[in-house]
Write a structure and sequence with these properties.
By secondary structure, this protein is mainly alpha-helical. It is built from 15 helices and no strands.
């Protein structure tokens, strides 16, 4: 019976009346009430479904607009990455957080949350507990951002374009960026998704640089393989398909809206994978470091956007 209720709740996320923030909270509550379907690999499901949703939404983005948008905010993207990594190093030392954990949290905050941590962790031979702690802090703040950012955006009366840029720069994981932007509006969704994936491309150079530096400090360490998340390439390919064959726009619109709804399912599953134990694991100095980095990039990028407008 409990498993059936879980699946009914998940199926309700496919309806147009369910929003991303509500789905996240509903998934969390379902698990808290013991409705979790047992040994199901939710994390694996989310990773694959989120990738499919992002690629589907790529069909709804104009290539020329995406290139222009990314070029307009390239300076902000680079500045936010560099500033966040420097701040992570300084604050990590001040709070006596292990340098590897600080670097992982800084990388996740600067670029793409869990994806960046997963890519950079092996490059610097991070231990399992360091990866888990960094993931827990970023995961917790992702859930907060999904609910808080739209509220702040409406309170400050941000237009959809500005909110989309802000979400792409200041929220960690792609899922929460897209979820928060979807709750704000279609224009915010397209802007946020495009810029977020442009920001995520920096995973590769940062991972390569991290591996080079680690191997320089640890000459006996083995080499690592750095890869780019497949959904980024798929998103770019979807935009190219739309650009080359624009006559199929109605079909692309259907794919775009289908991707948006699949994202709501992903947020439900993310909520279902949360627990009080995981939230408690993100405590202490590491969580304080993550919160301060998040506030820094959030407040700094918002101030830049407001002053530039």
């Amino acid at each position: 019976m409990q498993v059936a209720i879980f699946w009914l709740l998940l199926l309700s996320c496919l309806t147009p009346w369910m929003s991303a923030p509500v789905a996240l909270v509903m998934g969390f509550v379902a698990t808290a009430l013991g409705l979790h379907p047992g040994p199901v690999a939710i994390a694996s499901w989310v990773k694959q479904l989120l990738g499919i949703a992002i690629v589907a939404m790529g069909f709804g983005v104009q290539l020329q607009a995406a290139v222009s948008l990314t070029g307009s905010y390239l300076g902000l993207i680079v500045a936010s990455i560099v500033l966040t990594l420097v701040a992570a190093w300084l604050l990590g030392r001040a709070f006596r957080v292990h340098p590897t954990t600080s670097y992982l949290i800084g990388s996740g905050t600067a670029i793409c949350g869990g994806s960046a941590i997963a890519a950079i962790g092996p490059a610097i031979h991070a231990k399992a507990d360091q990866l888990a702690l960094a993931m827990a802090t970023v995961f917790t703040l992702n859930a907060v951002a999904l609910v808080v950012f739209p509220l702040v955006g409406h309170a400050l009366d941000l237009d959809q374009h500005t909110f989309g840029v802000w979400a792409a720069i200041a929220i960690h994981d792609t899922s929460s960026v897209v979820g928060a932007a979807q709750a704000y509006g279609n224009e915010a969704l397209q802007v946020a998704t495009t810029l977020k994936l442009a920001r995520a491309l920096w995973i590769v150079p940062l991972a390569l640089l991290s591996a080079w530096w680690y191997q320089r400090m640890q000459p006996n360490a083995g080499r690592v393989k750095v890869s780019l998340p497949w959904f980024i390439l798929g998103y770019v390919l979807a935009m190219l398909v739309h650009y080359v064959w624009p006559q199929f726009t109605p079909a692309y619109d259907l794919l775009f809206h289908g991707g948006k709804q699949l994202l709501v399912v992903c947020l439900f599953l993310i909520g279902a994978s949360m627990s009080w134990a995981k939230l408690k694991a993100a405590g202490g100095a590491a969580l304080l470091l993550a919160v301060l980095l998040w506030l820094l990039i959030g407040a700094g990028s918002l101030a830049w956007l407001l002053l530039a407008s």
